[in-house]
Amino acid sequence: MRIERDWVGARASMVLTLLVGVLSVATGIANIGVSPDVADFVLFGVTFPGYVQQVAAFTGTLTGFVLLVAAFGLRRRLRAAWYATMLLFPITAAQGALQSTQLSLPLIGLSAVAFAVVGLNFDAYDREVELTTTQMAALAAIAGAQAYGTVGTFALRDQHFPTVETLLDAFYFSLVTGSTVGYGDVTSPTAVGKLFTLSLILVTVSSFAAVLGVVFTPLIEARLSKALGRMTEEQLDLLENHVLVLGYGDLTEPILEELTAKADVLILTEDEERTRRLTERGYTVLTADPSDEDSQHRGRVESARAVVVATNNDAEDALGILTARQLNPDVTIVAAASQRENVNKLKRAGADTVISPATLGAHFLAESALGGEGVEELEQRLMSGDPSQAGEAVQEALDEEAAGESERAGEGGDGRGERSEGN
């Protein structure tokens, strides 16, 4: 089940979209140098002029860059990004086919695979685009600046910009001026034209700076948030088929060492200092109350493959188990009880499996001290990494412990009987 979800899940959709985008850009750049004077070619029974190959290469490069942006929209689980990718995948495949080279074949095949995988994950993309006031202001600023430059340049073309003939020329001058590229191929010989150009530089450069700030500020915040254990919503949205560890205690450390090599793990803990130490060691940590409903929602308990609860506080563990079971009735919940009498309580709270490490350890040590055989073999089976052997070993240990308790109870009863007869 895990392999299937990894191959067709939301994370796979984002990765495939990124790959298609990169491949589209690379294929377009490789074919963009095709001479427009090449002979006509036939594709699917239709004759196309030779320049279509160059046009397809150029537009394919642009489509690839758009797909790269759409991939980040998929990361945020935006429904608009899903629609955009489903529209762009057939376009990239068609552009690859029109380029008619062997380099285009991987693009066509990968576009088809990505179209199928992303299409299967429609339900995962349920968020609408929500722009902040800052983002809307930045977009409005750059759109207004380019409109000002384009319209102003076109209006002044007759007397002040003699090399500008069309709106495309005016937009070109506005864009290269605002981006500070400034090729110098379009200039004004008059004072009015130069004053307009100065105003255009101030307006467009400011708008570009505002957009760059809006783009890079969230990236910097994400790095700082990760260091402090305050994961961003984009990072949390990527979690899928992971193991959610509620709380951190002495019992949690060896569990993490076993889990991190086999699955994605997210730890929920309220201790910020502990969060910092765990983050430095490479663990993914969210600073939040493990038993809180909103915290578990942020940890995406709904899409988790398992929940592990193993702190030293059985009462708090029970609250975390109750919350997790309520939010995801189908998830597997395993817990460690610090006290033997709390095993049944944690099961009633909703845990599927509850193990008392202290009780099992004490049983193994006692059996070894009394000359019991096979204890080390049982431990090796537990540590083998084979789920079936480990499960059998745990059940065998529990059965032995239950038998030992029954035997001790029987001996206690016989002793009481003998004392009664002596009296």
Describe the structure.
The protein is α/β, with parallel strands linked by helices. The chain folds into 4 domains: 2-124, no CATH class; 133-227, Orthogonal Bundle (Helix Hairpins), CATH 1.10.287; 237-355, NAD(P)-binding Rossmann-like Domain (Rossmann fold); 364-406, no CATH class. Helices cover 64% and strands 7% of the residues. It is built from 17 helices and 8 strands. It has helices spanning 2-8, 10-31, 51-75, 79-99, 105-120, 133-155, 167-178, 191-227, 233-237, 252-259, 272-280, 293-298, 314-327, 343-349, 357-369, 375-382, 387-422; strands at 41-43, 46-48, 243-246, 265-269, 284-287, 306-309, 332-336, 353-355. A 6-stranded parallel β-sheet has the order 5-4-3-6-7-8, sandwiched between helices. Strand 7 (332-336), helix 14 (343-349) and strand 8 (353-355) form a beta-alpha-beta unit. The termini are far apart.
Explain briefly what this protein structure is:
The protein is 64% helix and 7% strand.
* Approximate strand percentage: 5-15%
Main beta-sheet strand count, sense and barrel state: 6 strands, parallel
Q: Give the radius of gyration.
A: 32 Å
Low-confidence stretches: 1-6, 413-423
**Total domain modules:** 4
Shape: elongated
**Biggest sheet strand line-up:** 5-4-3-6-7-8
What is the tally of helical segments? 17
How far apart the termini lie comes to: 66 Å
Structural class: alpha/beta
N to C succession of SSEs: HHEEHHHHHHHEHEHEHEHEHEHHH
Overall average residue pLDDT: 78
Instruction: Give the beta-strand count.
Output: 8
Helix amount: 55-70%
Domain RCK N-terminal: 240-356
Biased composition (Basic and acidic residues): 405-423
Subcellular location: Cell membrane
InterPro entries: K_chnl_dom (IPR013099), NAD(P)-bd_dom_sf (IPR036291), RCK_N (IPR003148), Trk_Ktr_HKT_K-transport (IPR050721)
